[in-house]
Amino acid sequence: MTGKRRASTNVTIIDIAREAGVSKSTVSLVLKGSTLVADETRDRVSRAMSKLGYVYNRGAANLRGAQSSIVGMVINDLSNPFFAELAIGIERVLRTSGYIPFIANTAESVVRQAEVVRSMREHGASGIILSPALDTDGREINSLLDLGMPIILAIRRVPGARASLVASDNMAGAARVTQHLISLGHRRIAFLGGMGAMAVRKDRIAGFTQALEEVGLRADPALMLESMPTKDGAFTAMSALLSRPDWPTAVVCFNDVVAIGVMQALSRKGLLPGRDMAITGFDDTTEARQVSPPLTTVSVDAGDLGERAAQMLLRQIAAGNQTTETYIGEARLVVRESCCPPPRERKVS
Amino acid sequence: MTGKRRASTNVTIIDIAREAGVSKSTVSLVLKGSTLVADETRDRVSRAMSKLGYVYNRGAANLRGAQSSIVGMVINDLSNPFFAELAIGIERVLRTSGYIPFIANTAESVVRQAEVVRSMREHGASGIILSPALDTDGREINSLLDLGMPIILAIRRVPGARASLVASDNMAGAARVTQHLISLGHRRIAFLGGMGAMAVRKDRIAGFTQALEEVGLRADPALMLESMPTKDGAFTAMSALLSRPDWPTAVVCFNDVVAIGVMQALSRKGLLPGRDMAITGFDDTTEARQVSPPLTTVSVDAGDLGERAAQMLLRQIAAGNQTTETYIGEARLVVRESCCPPPRERKVS
DNA sequence: CTGAAAGCGCTTACAG
DNA sequence: CTGAAAGCGCTTACAG
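The joint structure predicted for all components is written out below.
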């Protein structure tokens, strides 16, 4: 009903002081929860604040040196449930710490990422947990670090960056899932998804290759396909693969989202994942359990990684960003129903 | 390598002015992109800024009356992909507007919601898009509005709140999906999920009831079951229903997430959704397509709703929050494979 | 416990 | 185009 001009344009600590009949120092003390103020005085001030609709002005406070209470959470793809789970894990620990996490989504754009990080710095964020967009430059991370901003890299390492890292054991996970396929009898196995520049992809391919070499096989470059790490990207890449003559009998997918896109491409061709071709994922998102057939994948516990990242950030903020820590979470094989042995009739030479 | 104390603690507009050999007014003009500054001067200032690692101090600027460039996006459940899609739609339009959206997750906690909204106000957010937590009080929304803060309610209306609203046509959607079940021959239909206090649930139940009454049936209170709008909550509620004697032949679920929980409860009992019992969802999240069998549901286009909400917020910020708008998005029936006719042998009297 | 004073980093008129 | 001055709302010593 009213028509005030702008939020927080009016009532200040001085108005409160006048209303409560104290000095503004006292109001400030109440704001900070100081024990120096008498209970009766504190009550009077609190009542004045709610009566006048007072809003604390963080900007003014930060200006004078107060600790800001926000931390940034910069996520490269919020539509991927894996990152949503990560975000929720982060919030779980930050919630009890007095910090409020502000999330921003970059949708894999480094330009957007720079904007968002800048905005968070401008607003006085105490630290940032960054799940970096593709093609993030290590030097950018380092210059942030040099300015004294605590940064925790999550999920994706950035070559050349000196920041702390929380990620999962991509190499071991990929090796395990590949070994599983080999034990089912597969010899002609593709790796699909992710872009060439991604460190995570390199690590998973290293595990994949290592598992093959352990049994005297080698990775066929013609079966290592890139795609954007999205359902659509994977669908397209898999459809292209299926239009070629010599199919693999199994596909190790970059992650669950990619695996789901790959399954859709198979279905489109009338093929059934888990019967006509073995498919594996990575991440063990809730979707992995819900697709049909349920996806054999690698569990990395995104929520736990989020918690670790938040704890690490809190430590760095407290310590003043001196140390660099690394936490590599376990990557467990989760066998469900998306993997069959290779079909006899299509066995290759 | 360095050891600066805190981010943004040092270099200010004055340092830049000195470095570039101009006055600080000029630096401020450059910061605002004013055309009054000569190109050569602008360059000199820009170089000085990057040389010294300057970070704009939003707090100080806002203090003096500058427009803040953040808007808040407060989401009640980020782990529900529906809300992730909503968030992404919001970002899509905000991205081109110069505003940076900061997202916060309340996990259905009104306490958390109050904290988060307060923090956003303290940081000078220009407006907030709020997907309210359960049990949000209309008076809280109204007092925010009275302070001049533009607020757009998204997805869930709040009884008593005077804020603008972007939501979907819950009543029509629920009626459509119920009519679909009736046309398949169902007469004994349950409604499952959501908590009693939720306005959205009330609207959907109204559509459900109306569709039944159109054909001379009435909703059986024993078949209207509450649950938290989560997979686990739905699983529990459905399991309880299945332990009772007279099952329904079809279940209209509060949303897709609930439907998936219901399906899992059926599977646990050895029953197949779409063969032994008809199940419907609401929202048409990407998961609805991926579950097995694919879910018959109501499509509400979360991304589009997000875009509408963002456009509405931008309008309100520009206009100074005078008008109250409402946008109700269409709710289309999407028929997939989770609905069968009622089984003959279990047909009730 | 309270008051007076200084200053954080910026923007905004107002003269030049 | 540029400089000098005032002031936004808070916190921080410093006296009392």
